[in-house]
Each structure stands twice: as structure tokens, then as C-alpha cells.
Amino acid sequence: MTQTAPAYRMLIGGKLVDAAERFEVINPATEQAIASVPDASEDDLDAAVLAARQAFPGWSATPIEERRAVLAAIADAIAADAANLARLLTSEQGKPHADAESEVKGMSGYLKGIAALELPVEVVEETDKRRIEVRRVPIGVVGSIAAWNFPLSLAAFKIGPCLLTGNTLVLKPSPFTPLATLRVAELIADVVPAGVLNIISGSDRLGPWLTSHPGIDKISFTGSTATGKRIMESASHSLKRITLELGGNDPAIVLPDVDVAEIAPKLFWSAFGNNGQICVATKRIYVHKDVYEPLRDAIVEYAKTVQVGDGSQQGTQLGPINNRAQYDRVRAIIADSKAQGHDILTGGGDIEGPGFFIPVTIIDNPPEDSRIVREEQFGPVVPLLRFDDVDDAIARANDTAYGLGASVWGGDEDTATAVAERVSAGTVWVNESRNLTPLAPFGGHRQSGIGVEGGREGLMEYTLAKTYFLGKR
Ligand code: TXE
């Protein structure tokens, strides 16, 4: 009897391989197991790192035009399987099908955007005697850990710059959302030279093995600030380079001259898109007293029209929370607001199971020192906060250990931009929010991260400076 290979295998050294053990993946809308995936052992990790090491000399010497072509071919393979990938993404992540489709499309587009970037040689001196130039060289083998909120977008953030600059990669998806990423592994097994891009899945033990592995030269991580600190500590033992894209507690500042009806839905989606599970979701909304009541009422009315449900069903606009731990964390924050007697404008209750569903919850002007204001909620609950004076709003917006993103909303662009200049964050949006581009750096100030992803600066993170003093005779 012939045995068929299981679906969902890891990509190591150009081959699709299984592990001795597998673990189950849960659909957060049903809490049912939908598939099993390989649970990489330390030997599997060693094999992936070795494959990446062996591929490094050839890949780093490959002309950049060929590396661009490989990235474009990955992007095309993903685009050709978009419908299937989106279905998988909804089933493991929970997001509505339309959002999953745009994430797949976004992954493909991001890879093409990165593939078009340049890393020019910098000439710092040119005289009769000599020329001094700074070239950028790849670091070696990169280990990347992606989070469960945007499994494919985050994979693209890591794959694009890493491969373009001539490094090789061992990529680990979140144990909550490995399916679409392992499907990508299958799609690109024949597209990428063996060992250049390895994809391995594993349970909680795999992350610490990866970040302490002596054969890895750089770690790129997206996840919580607490885990980021642990990774920095373990990377310090061999002085691995690190890029950390961590949490945020992004403020929105709404000035008195806004068009309330126009911005209410925009602010809603800025906070509640992907169920609030976005590092740059708006997590605190500061509203000027002149427009506080009308904007509050407009957002609450809008919130009541939004359909929460299984992402695979027609009409669903918000799916479940991705996993049990995050569901419990968000519910604990809502329970704290209730216990403190905060005024809950909508939501706050339970949605009958199964599934990790939480109703859209909006809290009316809670104290600045409450958990819902101080902590990153990462779920569908947001506080509206009233201010009288813009200086006070800016001070409160900046009073956080985070510094990832922020937005300012106002009728007069110059006034709004002047406020944006005083908010301390890696990215500030004026009259829009959450948009990212492969052409510009994205990263956190303070405890929201170290380094950036995207743009030329994002490429630099995957390189080392090599300075040439070229004497002339
Ligand atoms: O992420 P964690 P979790 C935030 C959000 C959320 C919180 C927790 O606030 O509530 O993080 O989410 C690996 N060494 N964000 O628990 O703990 C492990 O594989 C090496 C923001 O899901 O950061 C795990 O799956 N690796 C974020 C992954 O890291 C380790 C997106 C993430 O774990 C490790 C997601 C270790 N010691 C959550 N410990 C964003 N920036 O967008 C764990 N891991």
C-alpha cells in the first residue's frame, strides 16, 4: 500500500518534509481542529539552519537582478493560488474572507515592491589619491518569527528584504496560524533555490531554540514587547543582529474642526480592523470636547451596524479573536473596565460560543490610568477620551512606553500636521491610518521595537556596512 504525503509539510533545503510529531491547528470561529502540521524538533531546526548556511555563499553571490526575479516569481506563485490561500487564512486566523483576500494580494504586492528597491553603493570620498566607498553586504542566515494577526503580510515583510539583500532565511510562522504559510512553502518549493528560504512550523518550544541557535546571524521578530525583550537577551549571547517589531498603544487625536460624519467610520475601522489585532490599530481615541458627543454617538451608531461572525460566512465584517489566550486577555481588560464602573457605550457582553467572539466594545471616557488606556488591548475594545486642550491631548498621547504609530484627524491639514509633528511615534498618519508601504521604513520608537521594516532603511537592517579604501596609483 502506498502512503500519500500529508498536507502541510516544512520546506527544508528545497524539500517538503514532515516531522516526527505534529500538532493541531484550531479554527477560532468553531474551536474545532482543522488540520495538523509538523512540530519541528531540534534536529529539524538544525537541518534548516544547515541548509540555509550551505545556500548562503551561492545566494549572496547571485546577481541582484536574479534575486529580484526570484522574489517576483514567489509573488506570482502566491497570486496564482490566492483563492485557496485566502480560504486557509480565514480558517486559521478568523478574519473575514475579503480581508484574507486582500492580505494575500498584499503579500504578493509587497514582495514585488521590495524587489524593486535599490541599495546603492555610497561614495564618501573621491580624490586623485583614493576612493572610499561603503558597500552593503548580507549578514548570513536570518531566523524570522511571524505573529498570528497577519501571517502572510508578516512573512512578506521578512522574506522580501532578507532574500533581496542576499541572506538566506529560516522562517517560523505562529503555531496558531501555520497553514497558509506552509501552503506558500509548497507553492515555492521549486521556485526558490534549495536552502535559500526554509519554512518550519513548531510549537512553543521552537521559538527559543531558533533565537538561541548558534548558526543564525540575525533575528527578525514580530510579536509582543515582553517576548521581544527575551529574544534580545538570548540574541546577545552570540551578538546576533535583531529587528524587533513589537506592540503599540497608538493614539488618535481628533481636532475640533473635523467632519464628524465623514471620520466616524474611518476611526471605527482604524481601531477595529482585523478585530483590533493590529500592532498599529488605533488603541486610544482622544476627541476634542467640541465634537466629543456627536463623534461618540456617530461611532457607536456605526458600531451597531457591524456584523461579527464566522469569517467564512457572507456578510461578516469582524471575525473571532485568533486564539484562546488572546480572547482571555481581551475579556480580562473588558471585565476590569466593568469592575471599575466605566461607562460602556456598546458591547461588553458575551457572545454565545463556540468560537472566540467578542462584541465590539466602546468605553466612554475612562480614567487615563485605567488598564484599557494604559495597556495594549489587541482586541475589539477601545476607549474614547475627552480633551479640552490640544497640548494636554499630545501629552497624554505621548505618555506611554510604546511609540509605534499615531494618527491626527482635522479639517485643516497644516494644523493637523503641526500636531502630528509633536506626537512621538515611528509612523504618524494625518486623516488616514494604518497604511504601510514597502517603500518607507516602518518601526517603533521606545519599547515598540528596534530597527525598521520596509524601504531602503529596512533593507539596510539585513546588511552590514563594508567600507573599501581604494588607493589609486
Ligand atoms: O505573542 P508573543 P502572543 C502582542 C499583543 C498580544 C501579545 C501576546 O499585545 O496580546 O503580543 O501575543 C515565539 N524566544 N502582539 O502571545 O508572546 C512563539 O513562537 C523566542 C503584537 O501571541 O510575542 C510565539 O508564537 N521566541 C504583535 C511568538 O514568539 C519566542 C502581533 C509570539 O509570541 C519566545 C502579535 C522566546 N522566549 C501579538 N517566546 C505585533 N507587533 O503586531 C515566544 N516566542
Automatic annotation (TrEMBL):
Say which family it is in: Belongs to the aldehyde dehydrogenase family.
MF terms in GO: oxidoreductase activity, acting on the aldehyde or oxo group of donors, NAD or NADP as acceptor
Is the Isomerase keyword given for this protein? no
Write the lineage as a comma-separated list. Answer: Bacteria, Pseudomonadati, Pseudomonadota, Alphaproteobacteria, Sphingomonadales
Protein keywords: Oxidoreductase
Specify the domain of life of the species encoding this protein. Bacteria
Query: Which residues constitute the catalytic centre?
Result: 245
Transmembrane ranges?
none
In Swiss-Prot or TrEMBL terms, this protein is called Aldehyde dehydrogenase
What organism, scientifically named, is this protein from?
Novosphingobium colocasiae
Q: Matching InterPro entries, A to Z?
A: Ald_DH/histidinol_DH (IPR016161), Ald_DH_C (IPR016163), Ald_DH_CS_CYS (IPR016160), Ald_DH_CS_GLU (IPR029510), Ald_DH_N (IPR016162), Aldehyde_DH_dom (IPR015590), LUC3-like (IPR044086)
Which residue range or ranges hold the Aldehyde dehydrogenase domain?
20-467
